[in-house]
Design a protein that fits this description.
Shape: globular
Radius of gyration: 32 Å
CATH architecture: Roll
Helix content: 40-55%
Oligomer: single chain
Distance between the termini: 122 Å
Strand content: 15-25%
Largest sheet: 7 strands, mixed
CATH superfamily: FAS1 domain
Order of helices and strands: HHHHHEHHHEHEEEEEH
Length: 205
């Protein structure tokens, strides 16, 4: 009888040791293996962080790095205002790439030519407001001042700046903010068409 008792007691201890301890706690599970990033992955993360930091450093860089704004961003970089905008606080009124295509993007390529620098500078100035402002702040004014000292009329009722409709907020960067516009303000279409026609005639000679 005693042998049977000891045998059953032994089985009970064995089962207990396989499941829980005397306190009723379950055995600890196997340790979870943590994912350790490789040196290459860490380097890529740092590059992405640096890229994002650079992108946020100014409205010009942000526009250049954002596909729908990049054509306008590169035009701004080619203008005489680039350095001033990069280090100051300005609001960029930014038409999208689709707006440029609707206005005949070939005419915008004319603005990249050195001989048309003055036209480019005047056009960019119409889209650069003094001070970093979001759309709501701009709508509190009757007029806003451009980087070259001109005034653009603001119409809160029709939601226009300089006669052009606002689409949406763009982005606020370390140096200024961006407002997305539905069209180009004071686009010198006639002047650029004449220059393009003149250039075409000269090439045919």
């Amino acid at each position: 009888m005693k042998r049977i008792f000891y045998f059953l007691a032994g089985i009970g201890l064995f089962i207990s040791s396989c499941t829980t301890d005397n306190s009723g706690k379950a055995e600890p599970s196997a340790p979870v293996t943590e994912t350790v990033k490789t040196a290459q992955e860490k380097s890529l993360d740092r590059k992405e962080e640096e890229k994002e930091k650079m992108k946020m450093s100014s409205v010009m860089r942000y526009a250049m790095a954002t596909p729908e704004m990049s054509p306008w961003g590169f035009l701004l970089r080619n203008s005489s205002w680039a350095e001033q905008v990069h280090s100051g606080q300005y609001t960029l009124l930014c038409p999208t790439d689709s707006v440029l295509r609707a206005n005949d993007i070939s005419l915008f390529s004319m603005l990249k030519k050195k001989e048309n620098q003055k036209i480019l500078d005047e056009l960019m100035a119409s889209h650069l407001l003094v001070g970093s402002m979001d759309y709501d702040k701009v709508m509190k004014y009757e007029t806003v001042e451009t980087i070259d000292g001109r005034k653009l009329k603001v119409d809160p009722l029709n939601k226009t700046i300089g006669g052009v409709h606002f689409i949406r907020e763009g982005k606020t960067t370390d140096h200024g903010s961006i407002i997305i516009m539905k069209d180009v303000i004071d686009f010198p279409k006639d002047k650029l068409e004449k220059l393009a026609k003149k250039e075409s005639m000269q090439q045919k000679k």
